[in-house]
Design brief:
Elements: E1 2-3, E2 12-13, H1 14-18, E3 32-39, E4 45-49, E5 54-56, E6 65-69, E7 73-77, E8 88-97, E9 107-108, E10 120-131, E11 139-140, E12 151-152, E13 161-162, H2 163-167, E14 171-172, E15 181-188, E16 191-196, E17 204-205, E18 213-217, E19 222-227, E20 233-242, E21 253-254, E22 267-279, E23 286-287, E24 292-294, E25 310-311, H3 312-316, E26 320-321, E27 330-337, E28 340-346, E29 349-352, E30 360-364, E31 368-373, E32 379-388, E33 400-401, E34 415-426, E35 435-440, E36 450-457, E37 461-462, E38 469-473, E39 478-487, E40 490-499, E41 503-508, E42 515-516, E43 532-534, E44 540-543, E45 554-560, E46 569-572, E47 583-587, E48 591-594, E49 600-609
Parallel strand pairs: 1-10, 12-22, 24-34
Antiparallel strand pairs: 2-7, 3-6, 3-8, 4-5, 4-7, 6-9, 8-10, 11-14, 13-19, 15-18, 15-20, 16-17, 16-19, 18-21, 20-22, 23-26, 25-31, 27-30, 27-32, 28-29, 28-31, 30-33, 32-34, 35-36, 36-40, 37-42, 38-41, 39-40, 41-43, 44-45, 45-49, 46-48, 47-49
Length: 615
Amino acid sequence: MFATPGSVPQGTPVGALLGNAMSDPDPVARKGIAVTGLTVVAGGRWQFNTGSGWTDFSAVSVNNALLLRDSDQIRFLAATSVGSPATGTATISYRGWDQSTGTFGSQANLSNATGGSTAFSVAQETASISVLSSNRSPVLVPSGTQSLPSIAEDTTAPRGTSVRELLGNTASDVDTGTQIGIGVSALGGNGNWQFSLDQGTTWQSFPALSGSNVLPLRGFDQVRFVPAPDFNGTSTIDYFAWDGFLGQAGSVISRLAAVPDGHAASFSSVSDRARITVTAVNDAPTIAAGVNSWLSPIAPNTAFSGSGGTLVSNLLGQADSDPDVGALRGIAVTGTTGSGTWWFQNNGSWRSGSTSDNFAWLLKSTDRVQFVPAANMTGNATITFRAWDQTTGPEIQGTWANLATGDKVGGTTAYSAQRQVGRIFVGAVGELPSLISMRRLDPVQASGGSVRFNATFSADVTNVTPNDFRLSTTGTARGVIASISGQGSSYVIVVNSLAGNGTLGLALNDAHDIRNGIGAAVRLANPPVNETYNLSAIVTLTRTQASISEAGGISNVTATLPAVQTTPVTVSLSFTGSATLNVDYSLTATQIIIPAGQTTGSVTVTALQDTLDEA
């Protein structure tokens, strides 16, 4: 440590002063010191801060030691320079304190009270600080190879690296006692650089840094990089060496800030760059929530075919995704239902068997699955599976995997945490109902609280619930599917709680569970029409003239929407007020129509002079 006459240092945490010098066999022991001695340079004084501001030390000794926790701070204030300033070395002596007895900020008698089962160490340590007449700049020798320990992709709370570790032996200062830090000047990488001023207890994100601005950090402060999700690669941190003469740790300062006469800059003239490598890890694939896959329907009594079945890639469809570039696709079959036999093919060979989370059958995207129904079976059969990216573990396609515990799926594993259900319908294709129309029953209306839709199927269906449909919106429009009523092939869906401006559309959910007349869930062959409902937008009216008192005067009235609409918007107009003597007005229209796809429309009000006596 060092100080210069008249400077006001930020202070050093007791924990940083102790470093790794203090140890305690008790598993939950805390750290602190008992200050037993102080020496000063003429005119200077030692201070401590326990959280309520800085206080001068009173006289201390072994019989009258001041107790401080590891989170408390100390500093030495050198005398203000008048003429030739006093220089030299000030010291502070202390013993370790485990805080088991005594109170921070108070004094304790350590006579015959050290070692053994006491709260104080037998050994005593002395730290010193040099008081210099003037400051000289630190020197940084860029190595271009400084680095932080690598971290894994998706790490959310990495261990910090101290500034002292980051610098290594690349920085020096001719001023005796200088504890060199850094002034961070630039940050790079996809993620969040953070710093800690309390040895990693709390972390703060770096502010934006530009130009000559830097954020100073002391040697015992720490930095870390928290990568963005799924990012791997290299991130960088640029910095200048800092000697602590000007600036406060954690507060942005210009490294070109003026310094007092007789002193040199507090930052080095050149910078260095350190790097951190974020190593790639596997990301588990995912499956969109509530998605069902449909296999092509088959007729009753369909026989096994060596060239038949459905490709795994088609079974997955567009439901699976993987953030890893170039990830492979596959499935782990965890369950099947249906009166018949499910067959699985890999590398040209077919086999069948029961599946579960304990015995999940692995298939790559080019493999096939096939259902062979029992004699005269009609209805549905299902296959349940997780996505598999073909990484990690001894498993390969065509073998079994045990996915019975939660740590085997999601995260960095090869398997999705979500399951997907594939369905196949066994029966005559003509038995498959389809959604033939979806139309809005209610007209577009201003401030409408609800709207009804009618869904018509090609045949009778059952088990129709609000969960079988979904809303799509544009703008700020929103609503809730409240209820469904009806029977047979016709149903009415009520959407209420309408609010906002924009459009609402109603469509069939991919994960619907609508059933046909025999009670089996079926694939609805045709997609619905996505009918839209336009909520009333807020219209703003403006005019070019507030009054038109002379014959031939005009005022243009313009209606403006905040966003374009998909259907025309009609704004009805009414005018109040009085005309002056012998002056009337005419309108080009009594309403403004804003065409679909546009945001404005207008009418013109023109003053007319007539011969009527309007007194």
